[in-house]
TrEMBL record:
InterPro entries: Enoyl-ACP_Rdtase_NADH, NAD(P)-bd_dom_sf, SDR_fam
EC number from the UniProt entry: 1.3.1.9
Domain of life, per lineage: Bacteria
Homology family: Belongs to the short-chain dehydrogenases/reductases (SDR) family. FabI subfamily.
Catalytic activity field: a 2,3-saturated acyl-[ACP] + NAD(+) = a (2E)-enoyl-[ACP] + NADH + H(+)
UniProt keyword terms in alphabetical order: Fatty acid biosynthesis, Fatty acid metabolism, Lipid biosynthesis, Lipid metabolism, NAD, Oxidoreductase
One BP annotation, GO: fatty acid biosynthetic process
Protein name stated in the entry: Enoyl-[acyl-carrier-protein] reductase [NADH]
KW S-adenosyl-L-methionine (keyword) present: no
Pathway terms, separated by semicolons: Lipid metabolism; fatty acid biosynthesis
Annotated binding of NAD(+), by residue: 14, 20-21, 41, 66-67, 94, 165
Residues binding substrate, per UniProt: 97
Native organism taxonomy: Bacteria, Pseudomonadati, Pseudomonadota, Alphaproteobacteria, Maricaulales
Cross-referenced Pfam families: adh_short_C2
Organism: Maricaulis maris (strain MCS10)
Amino acid sequence: AGELMKGKRGLVMGVANKNSIAWGIAQQLAAQGAEIAFSYQDEALERRVRPLVESLPCEPFMVQADVTNDESMDACFKALEDKWGTIDFLVHAIAFAGKDELVGSFTENTTREGWRRAMDISAFSFVDAGKRASHLMPNGGSMVTLTYLGSERVVPSYNVMGVAKAALEASTRYMARDLGPKDIRVNALSAGPMRTLAMAGISGGKALMRTGREWSMMKQDTKMEGVAGAALYLLSDLGFSCTGETLHVDAGFHAVAVPSMDDDD
Ligand code: NAD
């Protein structure tokens, strides 16, 4: 425990269960004194998320927000404004693409509707939430979204989600420029593969995890504590001057071109 987030309030979007990256981040923020509002997608998820939220040291504050629905987003940010007036941080850990699109040929399997939905939920939602959050940040603030290497390089089955993550990372830079003069920092955290609900939707997810272990510089899985620690850095005052960045936390996987070489070859 510490006080890096003492006096800071913010919204964490994307907790679905105890394995969610958003939950890993929220736990570290709470341990550093943050006050946190949690948004959940629908009633079914609320029942799963509430016990988690109630286990934190801060006062439980939950609001519904389906990012595809403008009225739902209006209501969520109205609730934040009514309760706190201003906020200091936003965590966006939301993505979705259909199962039929997260397999096989990107070229063959990407439909207009699938493309639209992946872009809407996984990229535009950060622009929209970021805009709304910035209106509640008169004293500056910090926003973080979660992304993955499939935006920069080709990963089997990641397909349309890789394209959506590329849009998300580019959006992060444009948002960072717009909001920089207001002392609001906007960054993306590129995490290595971790066992979550979203991961289970990707065909070959297990193989992705194994490749991460075998090929990463550190020869190990990406640890939730590392991803959450990086989020804490970006969201706290430790991150002063860091904006428009995509920070990789993946045991070094992103920088490896050739995993290993046999000297005799
Ligand atoms: P998760 O399934 O726990 O979280 C995904 C969240 O998105 C869920 O809480 C879900 O409710 C929410 N969501 C989906 N559609 C929504 C909608 N219409 N409205 C509101 N919320 C909606 O999985 P996760 O792995 O923790 O994913 C969080 C983020 O991290 C995602 O952006 C994901 O792409 C990213 N990420 C994950 C990994 C990994 O290996 N798990 C690696 C890098 C990045």
